[in-house]
Amino acid sequence: MDLQLQQKFETDKKMQELLKRNSYWFKELNRSSESYKDFTNAMKEKYHLKMTDKISDTIDNIDLISGILESLK
Predict the structure, then answer these.
(1) What is the pLDDT of residue 33?
(2) Does 21 score more than 90 pLDDT?
(3) CA atoms within 13 A on the CB side of 1
(4) What is the rounded average pLDDT of the residues 40-58?
(5) DSSP label at 50?
(6) CA–CA separation, 28 vs 39, rounded Å?
(7) pLDDT reading at 41 higher than 90
(8) Which of 14, 29, 36, 68 has the fewest Cβ atoms nearer than 10 Å?
(9) Distances in whole angstroms, Cα of residue 31 to Cα of each of 20, 27, 58, 68
(10) What distance in Å separates the CA atoms of residue 29 and residue 21, rounded to the nearest whole number?
(11) Dihedral angle sign, alpha carbons of residues 53, 59, 65, 67
(12) Angle between the 36-46 and 24-31 helix axes, to the nearest 10 degrees?
């Protein structure tokens, strides 16, 4: 694994957690550092870090708040 990738993993707690829980990524990343993009995509899916997930969460929060305000009327 490249030294740069190792440094990225040391600084990001979510990456470390995903590597601990899914050790097969070590094998993939050791074989080719091009798998890093796949790894980051898997991390974003697992922890809901994609932009669509953020937008969906925001819409859900707005719906929740509007429901609470409707019940208070």
Answers:
(1) 81
(2) yes
(3) 14
(4) 92
(5) S
(6) 9
(7) yes
(8) 68
(9) 18, 6, 38, 52
(10) 15
(11) negative
(12) 150
| Contacts (Cβ under 8 Å, ≥6 apart) of 15 | 8, 9, 39, 43
The model's pTM: 0.73
Residue 13 has pLDDT above 80, yes or no: yes
- State residue 2's pLDDT score: 82
Q: Which residues, other chains included, contact 36 with Cβ-Cβ below 8 Å and sequence gap of 6+? A: 5, 29
* Tokens (6 digits) for 45: 């899916």
Task: Kindly list the distances between the CA atom of residue 1 and the CA atoms of 5, 9, 18, 19, in Å, as whole numbers in the listed order.
Answer: 7, 11, 16, 13
Say how far apart CA 8 and CA 14 lie, in whole Å: 11
Structure tokens given for 38:
């796949």
Output the six-digit token pair for 25.
């990524």
